[in-house]
Amino acid sequence: MTRDPADLAAADYLDGAREMTAANRPYLAHLLAEEAAQRTTDPATAAGIRATFPDPTTTRTETD
């Protein structure tokens, strides 16, 4: 089912972020969570969302 992205709420994006985390897709989870944070009016809630889904490109460790 397709939806107009303008109709989606922060909770919809958070659900998607959780699904992407469960599917081991951290970058997509981060992008969805960032959209949820931007749609949240409370700065503390937005910060909590961002802390829960950090940018994997800044938290990744290199291995050989």
Explain this structure to me?
This protein has 64 residues and is mainly alpha-helical. 62% of the residues lie in helices and 0% in strands. It has four helices and no strands. α1 runs antiparallel to α2 (26-38) and α2 packs antiparallel against α3. It is globular and about 45 Å long.
Which regions are unreliable across 5 or more consecutive residues at pLDDT < 50? none
Distance between the termini: 42 Å
Helix-strand makeup class? mainly alpha
Summarize the main sheet: none
Cα gyration radius (Å): 13 Å
Order of helices and strands: HHHH
Q: Name the shape in a single word.
A: globular
Quaternary structure annotation: single chain
Give the number of helices: 4
List the helices and strands and how they pair.
Layout: H1 10-22, H2 26-38, H3 43-52, H4 56-59
Helix pairs in contact: 1-2, 2-3
In short:
The protein contains 4 helices and no strands. It has 64 residues and is mostly helical.
Any key phrases for this structure?
64 residues, mainly alpha, 4 helices, globular
